[in-house]
Amino acid sequence: MEEVHSAEKIMEILLSMDTGNSTRDIRIPGKGEFKIILQKEDDSSNTAVIHGGETARGARTLPASELPRNPYL
Predict the structure, then answer these.
(1) Please, which domain of life does this record's source organism belong to (predicted)?
(2) What contacts 35, CB < 8 A, 6 or more positions away?
(3) Could you give the CA distance from residue 4 to residue 28 in angstroms, rounded to a whole number?
(4) What is the DSSP secondary-structure string of 7-55?
(5) Which of 12, 20, 61, 62 could lock 66 by a disulfide, CB 3.0 to 4.6 Å apart?
(6) Buried b (16+ CB within 10 A) or exposed e, 55-73
(7) Strand, coil or helix: what is 6?
(8) Which residues pair with 28 in a beta bridge?
(9) How far is CA 25 from the centre of its chain?
(10) What's the Rg (C-alpha) of the chain?
(11) How far apart are the C-alpha atoms of 15 and 66, rounded to whole Å?
(12) Would you say 4 and 34 are in contact if contact means Cβ atoms under 8 Å apart?
């Protein structure tokens, strides 16, 4: 059982799953134990995969510190 402390780690686990590696047991401290099961792989997925600050579609990603602030909030 793998202990997870961040949402990024959960995304790494989800992205590493495939039909041969379709179940994962994780533990989130303070929340409990979970079993993640990949039921069906989506071959027509059009989600952008982030690689070094660039997405698969070519758009640049910004860290939260560089996002413009809304002056009305």
Answers:
(1) Bacteria
(2) 23, 24, 25
(3) 5
(4) HHHHHHHHHH-BTTB-EEEEEETTTEEEEEE-----TT--PPPPBTTB-
(5) 62
(6) eeeeeeeeeeeeeeeeeee
(7) coil
(8) 32
(9) 16
(10) 16
(11) 26
(12) no
Share of the chain above pLDDT 90, in %: 37
The first and second tokens of residue 52, run together, are 């070094």
In whole angstroms, what is the distance from residue 2 CA to residue 70 CA? 39
pLDDT digits (tens, 9 = 90+) for 31-60: 999 999 999 887 765 454 544 444 455 566
Residue 1 token pair: 């059982």
Residue 71 in this model has a pLDDT that exceeds 80 = no
8 A C-beta contact, residue 39 and residue 18? no
User: How far apart are the C-alpha atoms of 1 and 10, rounded to whole Å?
Assistant: 13
